[in-house]
Amino acid sequence: MVLTEKDAKQLDRDDSLSRFREEFYIKPNTIYLDGNSLGLLSKRAERTLLESLNDWKEHGIDGWTRGQHPWFFLSERLGEMMAPLVGAEVDEVIVTGSTTVNLHQLVATFYKPSGKKSKILADELTFPSDIYALQSQLRIHGFDPDTHLVRVKSRDGRLLEEADIIEAMTDEIALIILPTVLYRSGQILDMNRLTGEANKRAILIGFDGCHSVGAIPHSFSEWGVDFAYWCNYKHLNGGPGSVGGLYVNKKHFGSAPGLAGWFGSKKEKQFDMEHTLTPAESAGAFQIGTPHILSLAPLLGALEIFAETRIENIREKSLKITRFLMDLMDQELSDMGFSVGNPQEDLRRGGHVSLEHNEAARICKALKENGIIPDFRAPNIIRLAPVALYTSYSEVWTAVQVLKKIMVEKQYEKFKNEREVVA
Length: 423
Ligand SMILES: *Cc1c(COP(=O)(O)O)cnc(C)c1O
What we know:
Blueprint: H1 5-13, E1 31-32, H2 43-59, H3 74-86, E2 93-95, H4 99-110, E3 119-123, H5 128-140, H6 145-148, E4 149-152, H7 162-167, E5 173-179, H8 191-200, E6 204-208, H9 220-223, E7 227-230, E8 245-248, H10 293-307, H11 311-332, E9 339-340, E10 353-356, H12 360-369, E11 372-373, E12 375-377, E13 381-384, H13 393-408
Parallel strand pairs: 1-11, 3-4, 3-5, 5-6, 6-7
Antiparallel strand pairs: 2-8, 7-8, 9-10, 10-13, 12-13
Helix pairs in contact: 1-13, 2-10, 3-10, 4-5, 11-13
Bound molecules: pyridoxal-5'-phosphate (PLP).
Residues 98-100, 127, 129-130, 179, 183, 208, 210-211, 231 line the site of pyridoxal-5'-phosphate (PLP).
Protein name: Kynureninase
Family: Belongs to the kynureninase family.
GO molecular function: kynureninase activity
């Protein structure tokens, strides 16, 4: 069956999430397919940011406890709002820090090398910041990252096999850190299975959820995941530098935070100003210092939108619209040197399509010149993320037609095949 523009329009009419599109600032004549790097601003996120600024204007110091969004409880309140997105109880999630800082906190808390059980298991495809954090944590403990950071190998440079990861869970491993969804290929790891295997071996396991939270459902608590951390500026549309998310399984409440600070206090105790920390009996214990209020505030509005639908509905559309994109690529651009680098099965693919092409860097530049916003990951990947809340099927249709024109006319040849500073 040949797909046509009419099909795209019909899919838009049938889209039960289409009402959310008008909530977002979408620039005319651009098609934004980069919501997996930085989600777009919604009117509600803008509103809650402005309300928080106004709380400052109106209340000064009293904004901590008064005003529309009292700052003292904001991280906890946002944790509650986020809990359904990760399958957690409300006090198991806190919005604090950033991805990398939260990873440091969690490793400082949960990495307890003992005798031979002293290594950390990660993978060779993971995001560099996570690796830097793990290497430095190992050094702090006096270990050599070359021997103590074990990286599971990929068989094809794109995907990881769960069986290979499980095989690497030896009795030398104290802690496992893995992505929920791989940032390049978009592969979803089987978190349930991996957690089960780690639990069986008494190895703690934590996940980096940057590319999955807000895009796919999770059941962290049901699966028995020990901890997780993620950023809120990608699929959750919290804004550039938005404060991150942190999950700690209830069974670990009461663990002393590795990196302690006064915002980890039990709320009622914090202003007693004692020199002995009384940690919160929740994920809140893993906060460090004063939260970045103006980078938390947009999340109030951004998460309101998620509360009006179900993450399962978001996932359903995401699967459908990414499949539509892949089918169109197949139909329109099959002989242009592209290959799809993400897994094909729905269970194993996340919220973006990962196209590989030798000229990827300059094809991305040509796309941008034509008003299509992709992102490029060196050396040869074009990531395209049609976002369930605001991308339409018609936009995907147009994006593929534009890409076809770029390829047929070889428009990309006028650009250098090199990445930009930020790519
Ligand atoms: C985006 C991303 C990060 C970014 O970390 P920050 O501390 O927010 O800069 C880390 N890990 C993964 C997998 C990411 O996709």
